[in-house]
Every structure is written in structure tokens, then in C-alpha cells.
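Figure-free illustration: sequence to structure, shown twice.
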Amino acid sequence: MRSSMKGGMVIPASSPAYNVAYKPGKGAVAMKNYKSILYLFLALGMMIYAIPQLPVGEGWSSPSIFAAAWLIFSLLVVAALLYDLLSVDAESRQKIEKLRGMRRQERLRQLSSRFVQARK
């Protein structure tokens, strides 16, 4: 029989409290999407405001190199926000969460076996 130790108390594996883990609900996912959308609009607004004022195409001067670097970094920010917003890596994120759950259960089993051995 597997068991887990929570707060100095042994919880049997058959108990519903054994595999309790924080899983964000739909509200947390929606809030994350709102944040990504807000950040995306802020980044796009900043680009729309700044692009006409950037000195692009003036040769290899310091201002034009800065403008090119700024454009590259701003495009990376927009690309990262779109990547996150479109949930391109949702499957890999689910695999990682499953692996973390398996590792957590293994650690709990090791701790409970140590606890049981210490009590004998």
C-alpha cells in the first residue's frame, strides 16, 4: 500500500488527498491569455509609435545600428507573445507536467518508505 506523508501524517494512496496538486483552472488560463493579448498590443503599439522615428537606412552609424537592434528585439518580443498566445507548445507542456507529476509521486514514495523505515 502506497502512502504519503503530509504535515507529519501518513495519507494512504487510496485517499483522494494523496494526488492533490495545484492545477490552474480555466480562469487562470483565461487570465494568462488576457495578459498575453495586453502585452502583445502594448508591444505592437510601441513599434507603431517608434518605427517612423527610427533612423533606419542611414548607413552604419550608431543610431541606425541601434534602430536595427531595437527592431530585431521588438520583433522577437512580438514573436514570443504570439507563440505563447497560440499555445504552439501545449502538447510539450502537458508532457512536462505529466513528467513532473510522476517525479513528485516517486519522491513521495521515497519519503514515505523512509518514514516507515524510521518508525520501525
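We now fold a second protein in the same way, so the two outputs can be compared directly.
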Amino acid sequence: MTSTLSPPTLALRWTDYPLMDAALAGLCVFCDVRDPEQITPEHLQEFQQWAQKAYFTPELSGWIAVVFTSNFINYSFSTEKRQEVLRDILSSYQRPDTLSERCTIFPELQAQQRVARDLMPMLMGRGPMNFYPDGQPGLPLSGQAITALQGLSLAAPLVSGRAMILDADDKQLLLDVVSEWQKPWLKRISLSVTREDKKPIWAAARTRLMEAIRQVLSKQPRGKTHLPFAGGATIYHLSNSGQGPDAAIYTLEQPALRFMERASQEHPEAWKPLFQSKHHAADKTKDGDFGFRNELDEAMFSLPDAAPTFLRRYLLPPFTQALKVAQEGGKKAGKSRRKPSEESGNNLKAIPLAGLWGITELFLEEVVGMEKARVEAIEALGQRLGEWIVRENDKRLFRELYEARGASPLRHVLLKAMLEKSKQDAKSGAENRDLITTKDEYLRIFTEADELSRADFTLARDLLKMRVIQYLHDARFFEENKDDPELQNTELPTEKGDE
């Protein structure tokens, strides 16, 4: 006689469905396996024993109200009834799948029941029939799928009042990140039994993912240019609460990950202080270890689409700060003037511009995808301009270059520099009469094939200014001319959208 209990195999596997794969990752980490196919009925029994106690802790009770709605374990029921409902859900995999329909997530299995939002987040309630095939309410799921979805309790901690569900192209990354989250999450659940006061919350979902990825990378052998996993990752930051179901989606592309990893490895002397300068400590309402936010982490999710904005907001400021420090140093102290900014000076010393230019080159390579020849042309032109400004102490040229905004003013500055150098070379009889720039070089940097300005002209312009500033800073040009009015009156033009 065939038993109606545990099926011969659980038939669990990766599905490419974010909710299910996150849940399976939670179970894998809990059971200490690396593939859902290795999960056995004995593993699920172990999970069931944990869940029957943990689900009634204050921490997971709040989690359930967000992820599976308060109807999951109705608190109008008696304690015995609530335990029975939970036991029935956790043991779904042990009962036969008898519906004539196939399971939506594991179509090789028959369905056991049609479920609503209390068992599958982000669905509708049990009654409404809209938006379901054939007008039948609910989604057909097998018993294995119903039980496996409870693995979300092991993989999706609450962050800022919503469940943080990770979907990764590389399932090994998914497993590793869930492993980083699970231990402190389980500890938090355990401690909630004995603590009556409200615990500080986890916050900043995007920072939480980036911090976990850094922890993963720190534990693995890694090369200079390759990540130990493929693809990117997506956060589904969702609430299934009946008071306002919603989901925010944050996508982290692999170019951004490669940039972050290479910058931290190849230029740590510049990356570390740059990263720390964007750190915001958690306030008293947030967990000290899992409540801080980092602007640079958050901005990684805007790449590569917002590459020009990222460069102008995070990579350009330390270069412009070099000039500001010189300006402040040249002002005389008085009642109507502020003292030189110690913070600006400290930040400048902490972020070496040579290393930051190296980070910028990585950004162009990994995120922007700029051709190497164009990057080298920008670097070379910036150096020649810097050399000329230092040689002639031409502060006016620097000011005009620094304040040039559009293509026409920039061409005027370059033409003026070319003319001045050519006149000087002719007058002195110098053998080296190289031009500051050439038509071909200008076209390569700033124009398209039809000689119209490139769509990323602003990006190229800012890069040129950054390279010039780095050269002048390293040559102590700003220190030696800090009292000169030309530098005192130099301001970077404000771009549309700057904050």
C-alpha cells in the first residue's frame, strides 16, 4: 500500500522565480546544503520544528504580518488553533497533490490547492477572481511549494518595515548573501522572546546588500579583474500588508559590482576614505550594525544609466575641493569671514587625487565602457594643459578652463592655449613644438563621427577638468598661488540637476 506521507523525492530546484528562489536559499543555508535538490524530508522536518516555535516570537509575528498578512495566523484564534494552522502549512509537503492542475512554480508536479496572498505574497485575497486564469481565484501550488515558501522566514529579514528579498543571477551569490543575513536574523528572532522593548530596526536595504556582498568577497580568493560570481542582483523590497501592499525594486548590475571590487582592491588608499566620507551612522531608532546607510552603496544601483551623475556627484567633488581648500587658505581671517574648513582639508588629505583618478579610469572602463584610446587622450590632454599652466603660471587659463561649460567656451579655451604655446615656442626657438591638442585628439574626445558634440560631452569635459586639477594639485600649484585673485574668484558652474 502506497503511503500518503513524504513523497519519494521533494523535487525542489531553482526556479528563477524570485520569491521561491529566495525561500529555497533560506532553507539551503539553514540545512547546510548548496542546492535545493539536496534538501530532504528530514531537513524540512528540522525546519518545521524550528518554525513551530519561532513563528510565535514577537519578531516573526511582525514579519508574518508584512510578508503573509495577519490572516496567516489569525490572532482571533486560540493558541491551539493557530498552532494547528501553522502545522498544516509546514507539513503541506507530506500530503498528496490531488488537484487536476499543475503547480505554477513546479509544473512537473500536480497542485495541492489554490492559494491566495496569505500563502503567496503579492497575490489577491481568497475571494476576488480578477486577474486569474479562467476567473478562478488563487494560484495552484503543490504541497512542496507551499512549505518551501516558508523558507522566506530564513532569507528575507525586515528592513525599514519591509521584507528584503534578493534575486541573484548567480545562485551561489544568492546563497552566500542569505548566509550573511541569516545568522544575525535568527539571533534577532531568538532574542525577541526575552525582550519586551521594541528593538532597533534594520534599515537601508541597498546598503545591506552591498555590505553583505563585501563580506562575501572578503572570504573568497579573488583576482584583480574578475568577480567570483556572474551577473548582478535585484532587491525586491516589499510589503504584502493588507494596509498597503507595495514593492520597490532595486537592480544592481554587474558592471557596478566589478567597479566597486576593483576600486577597493587596486586603489584602497583613495577608495576607503571616499567610501567612508559617504557613511551615515544609524540613529538611535536603528540597529547599529544593520541600520547605517552609505550613499556610495546606494548610488551603485543607479549604474550604468546614471554614470555622468555618479561621476559628478561622487568622483568630481574631491578634485574641486583641492581648489576650495586653496581659496580658504588664501582668505584673511576676519569677523565677517569663516575660518578655513578643517573638514575640507582633512578630506583632501584623506583622498589622494592620483588614486582617485585611477578609480575614475576604472569607472570609465567598467561602468561607462569608454574606449581606452579616448580615456588615454583625455588623460594626455589634461596633463599637457596642466604642464602649460604650471610652466607659465597661467592662472587665468586655469580659471577659464575650470569655468567653461559648453562646447564653444571649451574650444575657445583650448584654442587660446594652443595659440599662446605656439607663440611662446616660436619666440624661444624651442625644439619641442608639440601642440597642446590637435584636431584629431579633440574630435576623439568630444565629438561623434559627424563632428557633433557627443551625448556624453559633459562627462568628457568633467574628466578633463579632473585630470588638470589632479596635475596642478600634485605640482602644488594651488598652494603656491592660494593668495591670487584669479583662484579666489574661480567657481565651478552649476549643472542642471546638481544638488
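Summary for the second example: The beta strands are 113-115, 139-141, 158-159, 162-168, 233-239, 246-252, 279-280, 293-294.
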